[in-house]
């Protein structure tokens, strides 16, 4: 074990142990496609009964009118986050009639891009900006990629961790600077080790043939309607999904907050020849917000982002400049088809321990050579993570995935033991469950999914439809007394529509002037 990491653990234990690291805040954002009973993407608009997709804090949309996004508030236990997410699912199912929620990251059966309705948010300038941004994503990366779904896990350590941490590190930095530097160290380590999350929680080794639309893919045919990677863990995180070539040359440094902000800001100002060819407007209608490498900061795809809650109309980089990093957003997770809400308590607990480990262990700056190595490791695990004997690059040598993953779990053990001293236990059990999946790849979600597909002997799209029906029946069968947040959701739906109307009434300039002011 790294000596500095060991000293930090000992110092934390002496200073309070679980009182300092247990009970960190976490929030979950879960994307899920609304589908017709036939299994195709729903063509209906966002239901008014769910409130305004622009301003509802808990139920919104992502790229498409049919791509719902559920958001939990910050909770300090895995159970509370799961309960809130479960309540949202039940509430939505009672609202969307005979439609279903697709339970996988890779999309359902697709007819054409024309069948993917763009998300609409109203007539305010900020609403139009959100829709134009999504239009640009479709032109840049294709609409099919935009209906891939995932889970985002937001996390911040407890507040009382920071004074103790300042003492342990003998830091004379300001509170904001210490937090930002520490969270960036976490971000760098997650970038180094996110392949482990793809191995353990990747659940997209197969895809409906309709998603491929004739593109070259190096996948094998599973059946007449399905393609798959024999050893794949997460096609969502492969070059078929988010790790596409459009952004492969874009590097945003996490070595300091200044570098992170400057790199993102430069990408928003730098034209891309391919996007210039698309054009910004056609007959006066916006196709995209601009023709630069990124339209806005959120277009940059990374497996983890440093975040701060932005004020109304404030750009994410401006929020980071203003107050530093407040929490991190982990984005490397597939939907789990084996959990009705897409993520389980045990998975949450492993993620919390993993993020704490990444915070506590040494995290030197990342250079260009290491950047290339990290990308190679990510793609190798996404495409072939369960391949027997697969080797990854660590430092200047190659190491078997199982050996490296086992080393990480061994180092995480004292973190889990410390967390288990808090009120919410089960962290060591969560670690041991993932160690079992490292020892036996057949226990991973990707292997289990392929095994289920072989057992049922039907195409991926039909199998997913069956799972969606089962989960619908589960949520609708819970009973009204189960839902602890129904009144909150009903109130938020009404008030969110009122907030949308207020925004539409407040606009004092036209859209062109609004965008100019936003980017100024």
Strand content: 5-15%
* CATH architectural group: 2-Layer Sandwich
CATH class membership: Alpha Beta
Which structural category do the helix and sheet elements fall into?
alpha+beta
Helix percent band: 40-55%
Treating each run of at least 4 consecutive H or I residues as one helix, how many helices? 19
Global Rg: 22 Å
**Unreliable residue runs:** none
Note down, in words, how this protein is organized:
The protein has 520 residues and is α+β, with helices and mostly antiparallel strands. The protein has a single domain (3-519), classed as 2-Layer Sandwich (Creatine Kinase, Chain A, domain 2). The chain is 47% helix and 12% strand. The protein has helices spanning 3-15, 18-21, 78-93, 125-141, 143-146, 161-168, 175-201, 209-212, 257-269, 273-278, 316-323, 345-360, 368-384, 401-419, 427-439, 445-456, 460-476, 486-506, 511-519, and strands at residues 25-35, 59-61, 67-71, 100-101, 151-156, 206-208, 220-223, 226-228, 281-282, 285-286, 304-307, 327-333, 391-394, 397-400. A hairpin with a 5-residue loop joins strand 2 (59-61) and strand 3. The radius of gyration is 22 Å and the shape is globular.
Task: Spell out the blueprint of helices and strands.
Blueprint: H1 3-15, H2 18-21, E1 25-35, E2 59-61, E3 67-71, H3 78-93, E4 100-101, H4 125-141, H5 143-146, E5 151-156, H6 161-168, H7 175-201, E6 206-208, H8 209-212, E7 220-223, E8 226-228, H9 257-269, H10 273-278, E9 281-282, E10 285-286, E11 304-307, H11 316-323, E12 327-333, H12 345-360, H13 368-384, E13 391-394, E14 397-400, H14 401-419, H15 427-439, H16 445-456, H17 460-476, H18 486-506, H19 511-519
Antiparallel strand pairs: 1-3, 1-4, 1-5, 2-3, 5-12, 6-8, 7-8, 9-10, 11-12, 13-14
Helix pairs in contact: 7-12, 7-13, 9-11, 12-14, 12-15, 14-15
